[in-house]
């Protein structure tokens, strides 16, 4: 019987998964990856193998209303596809580890209780990450699970990069800047020596541009600073989150509109960002082709904020050697990449329009003082590596 490691990345409306297999006496390989998206509305199941061959693609019943139901669907499909698999471990993406969990950890009831305490700091993701862990506990009670944290990669930021300028008494219990998307940044840092060796040991800004968006300043592959802070609301404009925001605006929501805490939380996490500005959509693909003035303004603001953050991180690094685009928008939107790069000419960026149209991997000209790259991220590989390492499996998992 072959050994298996399962990786789950659970969100509010989607469940991404990967299955890594180790035949007896052989090395690990990626057997399948996919996702169930549209959970709660129009759920759809997709799976493919490592060669991108489609293994399954079908619409699911509208009864799939939450992550637990999605895990039941996935479990059923895995049983039919892999038979009596020997599951050695399950690795999970968990957005927030707080100040206590700075590296991957084997999950216990105590750990799980601690992570529930952090739900208010990441209400869009943390509850669903933890619900997936609970669901696996019920179905595979004897299988070890590992939590891998989006905050972990940023643990070694300097004190000046983590401090929040509020009274010390208020900051005693973990009120500090953390940074997020760390599993994505860790993956990019791990493949830079192979994909872009000339910048791997240099000063690099990685732009993780997706529904959630942030940027990270890397120096020699280590995180120096990030645009996100205490929560995943900070920094860049996102699909439904505002990014950097004057705290007075939040006070104004309470004072002028007499909103409750939950109502303000809903505004900040669900109704702002691209959706709030445009009044049309939270999807960058729809906004780019729309003729609505609000849609154009939303796209312009997204690019504007990205440029401001690149300038700030370049200052922190003392200049940059490379710029990397990743995640949904970063990997697929030629227009957003071109607009950002054209406005980074002052840094020495010179875009190769043809290479950009082909999505890279290198999209800057040979003359460009700063090389620019498109590198697909794979957070699940990072999780799988940590899971294999922490559970002391004999062969580590490689991309």
Can you offer a commentary on this structure?
This protein has 399 residues and is α/β, with parallel strands linked by helices. It folds into 2 domains: 3-156 and 380-390, 2-Layer Sandwich (Nucleotidyltransferase, domain 5), CATH 3.30.420.40; 197-374, ATPase, nucleotide binding domain (Nucleotidyltransferase, domain 5), CATH 3.30.420. Helix content is 37%, strand content 21%. It has 14 helices and 13 strands. Strands 5-4-3-2-1-6-8-7 form an 8-stranded mixed beta sheet, with helices on both faces.
Topology:
Blueprint: E1 3-10, E2 14-22, E3 29-37, E4 44-48, E5 54-59, H1 67-82, E6 86-94, E7 105-106, H2 109-116, H3 126-139, E8 144-149, H4 159-162, H5 182-195, E9 203-209, E10 213-219, E11 222-226, H6 247-257, H7 261-270, H8 273-278, H9 284-289, H10 293-317, E12 322-326, H11 327-332, H12 334-342, H13 353-357, E13 371-374, H14 379-390
Parallel strand pairs: 1-6, 6-8, 9-12, 12-13
Antiparallel strand pairs: 1-2, 2-3, 3-4, 4-5, 7-8, 9-10, 10-11
Helix pairs in contact: 5-14
């Amino acid at each position: 019987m072959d050994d298996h490691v399962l990786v789950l990345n659970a969100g509010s409306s989607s469940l991404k998964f990967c299955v890594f297999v180790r035949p007896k006496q052989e090395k690990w390989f990626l057997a399948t990856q996919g996702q169930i998206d549209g959970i709660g509305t129009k759920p759809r199941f997709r799976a493919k193998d490592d060669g991108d061959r489609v293994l399954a693609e079908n619409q699911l019943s509208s009864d799939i209303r939450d992550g637990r139901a999605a895990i039941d669907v996935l479990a059923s499909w895995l049983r039919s596809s892999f038979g009596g698999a020997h599951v050695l471990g399950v690795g999970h993406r968990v957005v927030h580890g707080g100040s206590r969990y700075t590296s991957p950890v084997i999950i216990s009831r105590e750990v799980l209780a601690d992570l529930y305490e952090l739900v208010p700091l990441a209400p869009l993701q943390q509850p669903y990450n933890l619900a997936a862990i609970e669901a696996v506990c019920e179905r595979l009670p004897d299988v070890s699970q590992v939590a891998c944290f989006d905050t972990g990669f940023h643990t070694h930021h300097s004190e000046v990069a983590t401090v929040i300028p509020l009274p010390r008494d208020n900051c005693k219990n973990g009120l500090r800047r953390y940074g997020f998307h760390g599993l994505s940044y860790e993956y990019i840092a791990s493949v830079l020596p192979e994909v872009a060796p000339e910048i791997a040991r240099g000063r690099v800004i990685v732009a993780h541009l997706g529904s959630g968006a942030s940027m990270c300043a890397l120096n020699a592959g280590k995180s120096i600073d990030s645009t996100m802070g205490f929560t995943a609301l900070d920094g860049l404009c996102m699909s439904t989150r505002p990014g950097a925001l004057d705290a007075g605006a939040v006070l104004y929501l309470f004072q002028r509109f007499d909103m409750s805490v939950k109502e303000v939380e809903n505004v900040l996490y669900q109704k702002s960002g691209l959706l709030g500005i445009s009044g049309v959509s939270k999807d960058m693909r729809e906004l780019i082709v729309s003729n609505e003035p609000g849609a154009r303004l939303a796209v312009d603001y997204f690019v504007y904020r990205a440029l401001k953050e690149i300038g700030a991180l370049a200052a922190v690094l003392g200049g940059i050697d490379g710029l990397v685009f990743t995640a949904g928008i970063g990997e697929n939107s030629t227009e957003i990449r071109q607009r950002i790069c054209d406005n980074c000419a002052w840094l020495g960026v010179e875009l190769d329009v043809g290479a950009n149209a082909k999505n890279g991997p290198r999209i800057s000209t040979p003359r460009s003082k700063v090389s620019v790259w498109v590198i697909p991220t794979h957070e699940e590989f990072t999780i799988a590596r940590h899971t294999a390492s922490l559970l002391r499996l004999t062969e580590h998992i490689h991309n």
